Amino acid sequence: MTESSEPGAGPRRAKRVDAFRNEQKLLDAAASVFVEVGVDAPVRAVAAAAGVGVGTIYRHFPTRADLVVAVYRHQVDMLAAAGPSLLATSGSPDAAVRDWLDQFVDFLVTKHGLAAALQDDKVGAALHQHFVDHLVPVCAELLAAATKGSGGAGLTAYEVLRGVGNLCIGAGQDPMFDTRRVVRAYVSGVLIGEDVGRG
Amino acid sequence: MTESSEPGAGPRRAKRVDAFRNEQKLLDAAASVFVEVGVDAPVRAVAAAAGVGVGTIYRHFPTRADLVVAVYRHQVDMLAAAGPSLLATSGSPDAAVRDWLDQFVDFLVTKHGLAAALQDDKVGAALHQHFVDHLVPVCAELLAAATKGSGGAGLTAYEVLRGVGNLCIGAGQDPMFDTRRVVRAYVSGVLIGEDVGRG
DNA sequence: TTGTTTTCCGGAACCACGTTCCGTATATTT
DNA sequence: AAATATACGGAACGTGGTTCCGGAAAACAA
C-alpha cells in the first residue's frame, strides 16, 4: 500500500514502450489497409501490414470491431464537434442539418464498407454504439433547431442518422446509385412536414 | 437425332425423380430455416433441415445466393405483378407508389437479414440482380405516373428502390428504428419536388 | 430381369476468416 | 545481472462457403 494512491484500478507498472509503438503501428497500418481494401479487410492483413503477429492485434484490441472503432474515433469526434459550429455558420438550421449530414455522408462514403460494417451484428455492435453515443446528441440538437417551426416528419435523431447511414451502404461500388442525391431526398422528407403528398 | 425435337439445349434424359424431390425438400427447408434463423443461416443448417448432404445443395444451387433467390423468387414476382394493379386501385399515383413500396418493405422486413443480404457482395450479387430485373421496371412505371406533374426529386427508379432496400437493413432488430416511418419520410422526399427546404 | 449407363447423393476435405492459447522474447525493476 | 511482469508471434481451433469424388440409385437397353 505504499504506492497505491488510486484504489484498485491502476496498473502497477506503466505500459511497455514497445507496446505503445505497436499500438500506433497497428492503428496506422489498419487505417491504410482499410482505405485500400475496405474496413472488412482480414485481421491478418492488418497484422502483416503492421509487421506484427495476429496475437498482438488482439492484445491491443479485444476484437476486430474495437480496432475499427479506434481507427475512426478521431473522425467521429470531429464530426460531432462540427455540429454546433455549423448551426452558427450555416444560413439556416435546415442548411445546418443538410451540411452536417453531408459531412456524415462524406465520412462514410470515403471508407469502403464502413456503413455496411455498422450493420454487421458482430463488427457493428461496438461501432454502432460509439457512433450513437457521439453523434445522436449532435444530430438531435440540429434537428430540434431545424424542425422548430414545421415539426418535420417526426423521426428521432437516431432514426435520421441511422437512415443516412443505411443509405450509404454500398456507396461507391455502384455507379447507378448516387448516394448524395438519395440522401438529399431523404433529408428533404425528414425536414418536411408529414402531410406531404397525401392526395 | 431421332428424338431431338429441340435443337442443342435440351438434356438427353429427364431429370431424375429423386432429384426433383430433393430440390423441393431443399426449397421448403431453406424457407423455414430462413424464417427461423435468418437468410444468413449456414448452408449446413439448411442441408440438415432438408435431410440431405451439402453436396446436394450445391448440385441444385451453384451457390448459396442462388438458393436464396430461388426461395424468394415467387414473392418477388408477386410484388412485381402487384404494381400495375395498384395503379388502378389506389386513389392516386402517389398513393400507388407508397402502397407498393409499403409492400416491398413488408416483404423485406419479414425476412430476417434479407435486406442486408442484398448488399453482401457475395450473396448479394445474384439476389440483387434478380430484384433489379424484376422490380425496377415496375417501380419506374409507378414513379413515372406519380411524378408526372411535380417532377419529384429526380431519382431513378433504381435509386428509389435501392434506397428503400437499404433503409430496411436491420429492421426488426432495433426497436428504436421504425422502418415504416423512416421509409415514409424517404418516399416523401422522393415524391416532392427538389426545391424543398432551400432557404 | 439383368446389365449398362447416366445422374445424383453424402460428407470428408479445403480454404478463408475471427479468435484463442501458450512458449518464447523483451522491457522494466531490483 | 537476476528476477519479474509484460508483450510478442504464430500455430491451432471453430465456423462458414465451396469443391471433390467414391459409391448409390435411377433410367434405359437387352
Report what the structure shows.
Two copies of one chain form a homodimer. Chain A has 199 residues and is an all-alpha fold. Chain A folds into two domains: 7-60, Arc Repressor Mutant, subunit A (Orthogonal Bundle), CATH 1.10.10; 68-191, Tetracycline Repressor, domain 2 (Orthogonal Bundle), CATH 1.10.357. Chain A contains nine helices and no strands. In chain A, α4 packs parallel to α7, α5 (93-110) packs antiparallel against α7 and α7 (121-146) packs across α8. The longest helix of chain A has 26 residues, at 64-89. Chain A is elongated, with a radius of gyration of 20 Å. The interface between A and B is large, with 40 and 40 residues. The first copy, chain A, binds a DNA duplex (30 and 30 nucleotides) through residues 12-19, 22, 42-44, 47, 52-56, 58-59, 63-64, 122. Chains A, B: InterPro entries: Homeodomain-like_sf, HTH-type_TetR-like_transc_reg, HTH_TetR. Chains A, B: Pfam families: TetR_N. Chains A, B: It comes from Aeromicrobium endophyticum.
Condensed summary:
The structure is a homodimer of 199-residue chains. Chain A is mainly alpha-helical and 199 residues long.
Low-pLDDT stretches of chain A: 1-8
- Helix/strand-derived class of chain A? mainly alpha
- CATH C-level label of the largest domain in chain A: Mainly Alpha
How is the main sheet of chain A built? none
How many domains would you count in the coordinates of chain A? 2
Task: Measure the end-to-end span of chain A.
Answer: 76 Å
Write the CATH homologous superfamily of the largest domain in chain A.
Answer: Tetracycline Repressor, domain 2
How much of the polypeptide of chain A forms β-strand, as a percent range?
A: under 5%
> Largest chain-chain contact?
A-B, 40 and 40 residues
By CATH, the architecture of the largest domain in chain A is named: Orthogonal Bundle
Total beta-strand segments of chain A = 0
Q: Provide the succession of SSEs of chain A.
A: HHHHHHHHH
